[in-house]
Fold:
Amino acid sequence: MAKRICTYGRTNITFRLAMILSTLRIMDTGNFTISITCTDTDFKIAMEIVKVLIQHAAQIYQRLPTEAAAISKPSPRQKFYEQLPDEDFNFQQYIDIAQQSNIQKRSAIRYIARFIQTGLLQHPTRDTYNKTK
Structure:
C-alpha cells in the first residue's frame, strides 16, 4: 500500500512539474494557444528533478531517529527534577531526594544550580527553591 501511495505521489509531482515547465516554456516563447502540450524535454526534466527529490528524501529518512531511539529513558538529572516537589522546598529536602535516587550530594547541588541557571527552578530566598511555573 505504501509503495502504491509513493508511486502515485511521484507521478503526481512529476505531472505537476512537467506542466509548470510547459507553462514556463510557453511564457518564454509568447505562444499563448489554447492547448498546452508537454514536450519530451519538459517531461525528461521533470523526471530528473523527481529522481533527485526521491534521493534526497531517502537520505533524510535514513537520518531520522528510529522510534526506539526517540523514546529514551530519562537521565538521572531529569528523574531528579521530576521528583522535586512542586511547592517550595529547601536544601535538606532536595538532598534527601537525591540520596533516595542514589545521587551524590555534590551532583545534586550541581543539578540544582543548573536548574536555576536554565530557569527550571527559582531561588527566591535563602534556602528556598521552587519549580518555575
Notes: The CA atoms of residues 119 and 132 lie 7 Å apart. The two ends are 47 Å apart (CA to CA).
